[in-house]
Amino acid sequence: MLMASGPVTTGAQEIADENGVDVVGRDRLQAWMLQIGEERDRGENEPAAAVAPGGMRPAGQVLTGVLCCGLIMLIMDVFPPPLAAARRVSAAARPSANTVLSARERVVENVFAAINRRDWPAVWRLWYHAEPGYGPGYHRMISGSRLTERDVVTSIRSTGTIVTARVHAYETTGAVQSWEFRYHVHHGKITAGSSRLLGTRHP
Questions:
Q1: How large is the average pLDDT for residues 6-22?
Q2: Within a domain: residue 85?
Q3: pLDDT over 70 for what percent of the chain?
Q4: Whether residue 74 has pLDDT greater than 80
Q5: What is the pLDDT of residues 34-49, one digit of tens each?
Q6: Domain match, 98 and 195 both
Q7: Which of 48, 56, 79, 138 is the 20 to 30 A CA-CA neighbour of 159?
Q8: What's the CATH number where 165 sits?
Q9: What's 135-151 look like in SS3?
């Protein structure tokens, strides 16, 4: 469970859902606090017999759960498991959700998001093709990503019609490759692109 004192972005919620993480954002936390207050107010007007001997009021249960979650989060922050630590590093390298992307940069970001979803038709549609339909290049595109587990965009910027993206490609083999991609984007489509391998970290 992840508890946040602020709102949760749609992208963060999607990542949490994909990884089985229950996210408690500000709205849900406020609802819990209101429930605690209402149950406390009702409890002041109820006889003590309303609580079974040795039992706990619902408000107390919710408060205990919130405090326990906070303690677990503190422990996980001080002593993170290796996988969680690796994910934290990759998340920190990811562009901030508050970063305002241009329309061209958003096209490139959408390409990598579609690759991570394995939505190959969506990836194909974001590229310009002189001929309609799915040609041999479509299958080469899928084959080229067969070892990719996920792509993490660490930076993205544009100059004119050229968009440059730095990406960490996490492979099913455990290796992590660092790439720089350069794309020409016109009218919401990628018309040309090139890539450069910056380095590989093996498990």
A1: 79
A2: no
A3: 75
A4: no
A5: 777 777 777 665 554 4
A6: yes
A7: 138
A8: 3.10.450.50
A9: CHHHHHHHHHCCCEEEE
